[in-house]
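ok posting inputs for the zinc ion job
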Amino acid sequence: MDKWRTPEAQAYRKLYQTKHWRHLREQVLLRDLFTCQRCGCHLKRGKTQPQSAVVHHIKPHKGDLDLFHDAGNLQSVCWSCHSGVIQSEEARGFSTEIGEDGWPLFKTINQRLQSLTYGFFHH
Ligand SMILES: [Zn+2]
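and the output
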């Protein structure tokens, strides 16, 4: 079964399609001056480069709307740092696979999770 088709995953995805989120995301990027908060690189728009901007939830929101929309819980990072964050979190035994902004990454993680840790997460 494809976990991305679970009701939870679909609900989470919808959170990223709201005006509220897009506005908030933009504010966080401006607040952070389009600078990656981890490596300090200048973030770029678009989603296909290592320095593409990703707005990361520091604490996984798990569908919690307050946490999801809390600017204090958001951090601008680049795509490549974000990959590192996710990898380290996966290594710690939990995942932020839902709650990240970046469709290519979504796919990659999804495929990786399916091949490596399917059945580990309870959705
Ligand atoms: Zn970075």
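notes: The longest strand covers residues 53-57. The chain has two domains: 7-90, 93-123.
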